[in-house]
Design goal:
155 residues, alpha/beta, 5-stranded mixed sheet, single chain, 20% strand, elongated, 30% helix
Length: 155
């Protein structure tokens, strides 16, 4: 078994229904005492090539509209940080370190946020980068996931 499973800017391209099974399979691969580490880009990737597009632009689209205008070649699931944490929690994967970086409030405020995202906390919407590290217990059991998660947030 490998000592580490690492992804860098991959999970945001995986459709939501596939994330829990993929993360569980990856965590199951890690040797006891090993690490699973995922860096996730929560920005609209179009902003990297078009300066008129903000990091939050894709939050303006309803799920239906996004299915029509989204890119099938480079799918973006548009999940927010809290949704990734919920997926980890639901899959029973420990989160030993969680760090995030927030984008600029002015960029988010300029986007008319679609109803699908409007119920989320503004601090959650502002997250543009998320890094989650999970350590597989030496005994092989993942144990319960709960309030013992170490969280570090930087802006």
């Amino acid at each position: 078994a490998p000592d580490a499973v690492v992804s860098n800017l991959v999970l945001e391209h995986i459709p939501e229904p596939l994330l829990a099974p993929i993360l569980s399979a990856c965590f199951d691969l890690v040797a006891p005492g090993g690490v699973m580490s995922h860096a996730i880009d929560l920005c609209d990737h179009a902003h990297y090539i078009d300066p008129s597009v903000t990091q939050f632009n894709y939050l303006r689209f309803s799920p239906r509209a996004w299915s029509l205008v989204g890119n099938d070649v480079q799918h973006e699931n548009r999940l927010r940080a809290s949704q990734y944490l919920d997926i980890y929690h639901g899959a029973g994967i420990p989160m030993d370190d969680v760090s995030s970086r927030a984008g600029e409030w002015a960029q988010l405020a300029a986007v008319p946020v679609a109803p699908a995202f409007a119920a989320l906390d503004v601090d959650d919407l502002l997250v543009v980068f998320l890094h989650i590290t999970s350590v597989r217990p030496s005994g092989g059991s993942t144990g319960p996931v709960g309030d013992d998660v170490a969280q570090t947030t930087s802006t």
